[in-house]
Write a structure and sequence with these properties.
The protein is an alpha+beta fold. It has a single domain, classed as OB fold (Dihydrolipoamide Acetyltransferase, E2P). It is built from 1 helix and 8 strands; from the N terminus they run H-E-E-E-E-E-E-E-E.
Length: about 110
């Protein structure tokens, strides 16, 4: 059975609208953002806190996994903490000279889910 005129248009219009929606949403979004909390690790048995010596990143900066995030000093030893995951750095906690407790939040890294 061959469709003509308005019957054909009634079948095609919904398909055209759906195609326009697909094109408008391309490329697909990257999905939900995962938040990875970077916390101060306990580097020795007696360590209870550490001082922030210097931040190597800024809020909003994209970092690869393993990039230097922050230099800390604990028990007269300095150490640079690397990014455990790749993503965008958010919510830097503390400034140079501030003291952070073990397991205290240093920053958040948002990654694509």
């Amino acid at each position: 059975m061959l469709m003509r005129g308005s019957a054909l248009n009634q079948k095609i219009r919904p398909l055209q609208a759906r195609a326009a929606q697909c094109v408008a949403s391309w490329p697909p979004d990257e999905g939900p953002q995962m938040r990875y909390e970077v916390r101060l690790p306990q580097l020795s048995m007696g360590m209870s806190d550490a001082e922030i010596i210097d931040w190597y990143v800024e809020d909003g900066e994209t970092v690869p996994e393993g990039a230097d995030l922050v230099e800390i000093e604990a028990e007269k030893t300095r150490q640079v903490l690397p990014a455990p995951v790749a993503g965008v750095v958010r919510e830097l906690q503390g400034d140079q000279g501030d003291v952070v407790d073990v397991r205290g939040l240093l920053c958040v890294i948002e990654t694509s889910g």
